[in-house]
Write a structure and sequence with these properties.
Elements (H helix, E strand, L loop, with lengths): L12 E4 L14 E4 L6 E3 L2 H24 L5 H5 L11 H12 L8 H13 L4 H10 L9 H12 L2
Antiparallel strand pairs: 1-2, 2-3
Helix pairs in contact: 3-4
């Protein structure tokens, strides 16, 4: 069974964390789970990663069977699809943004980590503030933090 978000019970999307960013993720994990709904980030253990790989393989088989049967996906299946929002950039810059989103609960406490993640994301070609704007406007996302307010606080905190 795939790992679930502890807050909103959605299937977590596994995200591989490059070694340079592991100090900023929960428990220095090589893989974190990102919730596509509330945007929380949690460390995934090996068992969770293996379960996600098995679930993805099963989903591919199920998708092929559904395509063969011309069956429409059920609303429950659509509701629980485990993909990150389109606003999240690809690559290391996107991983930095995912980790940053998990730290937005406590800007002041996480200031140094947030600054490092913003810098890393920007070096990786990601526009953190544009991403926050797009996520705030995404009706499929119900973030754990008020992204509009956090964006303004983040700009002030980082001197942008």
């Amino acid at each position: 069974m795939a790992a679930r978000c502890p807050d909103c019970d959605r299937t977590l999307v596994p995200v591989e964390v490059p070694p340079a960013l592991r100090e900023f993720d929960p428990e220095d994990a090589a893989v974190v789970g990102s919730c596509p709904r509330c945007l929380r980030t949690v460390a995934l253990g090996e068992a969770d990663v293996d379960a996600d790989a098995d679930a993805n393989a099963d989903a591919d088989v199920d998708a092929d069977a559904d395509a063969d049967a011309d069956a429409d996906p059920s609303p429950e299946t659509d509701h629980d699809a485990a993909d990150l929002p389109d606003a999240i950039p690809d690559g290391d810059g996107g991983v930095a943004v995912v980790l940053l989103l998990g730290l937005l609960d406590a800007l002041a406490t996480n200031r140094a980590a947030i600054q490092a993640l913003v810098d890393h994301a920007e070096r990786g070609g990601a526009d953190v503030f544009l991403t926050l704007d797009r996520l705030a406007a995404d009706s499929d996302v119900d973030p754990h933090a008020d992204l509009g307010r956090r964006r303004r606080q983040l700009e002030s905190l980082l001197g942008y």
